[in-house]
Write the structure tokens for this entry.
Amino acid sequence: MTLYIATSNPGKLRDFAAAASQDINLSPLPGIKEIPAPAEDEPTFEGNARLKAIYYSNHAPGEIVIADDSGLEVDALHGAPGVRSARYADDHHFHGPGKTDERNNLYLLEALSKVPTQNPTARYHCVLAAARDGKILAIGDGTVEGEILSTPRGTGGFGYDPLFYLPEQNKTMAELDIKTKLAFSHRGRAVVHLLAKLADNKQ
């Protein structure tokens, strides 16, 4: 069975592919780069995931399309960057060096420098929505708890992975191999949850 992922982000596609079961093929939605992206203006991860799943499923008649919204929630920052995780630095007009992920990480460290908390607690949160022909079929949710380091570690992963530390692993997300990461990551847990919901809906 093939499910189509409404993303062209190579990091997300790699994570989804590693999390799929043997009888489920998770593939990028064909032609997604030519489809104008919808405005992600909902205040919650679930709202944005639903919006995107409905929108992109209408571009693939008869197929099940999965969309995600995910991000980092830092307790000391009252849940920020949250749904704005991918645009955190840009939202605050931070023009540091590097590409988007690097600038987001630098701005996060700058924001935390004003907070008197060492290794603040945080979580990655992912919500997946599956839709067919504009109708939501199932929602999957996953989180993983961790801490934010003051300096990045590791070269794997993407987003905030070099700063997101997992005490039980004594590593950041960026230091884990992909299979280990997906065994307990927010995205891996959301995929498992979503696939279980879709299987239940078939019964």
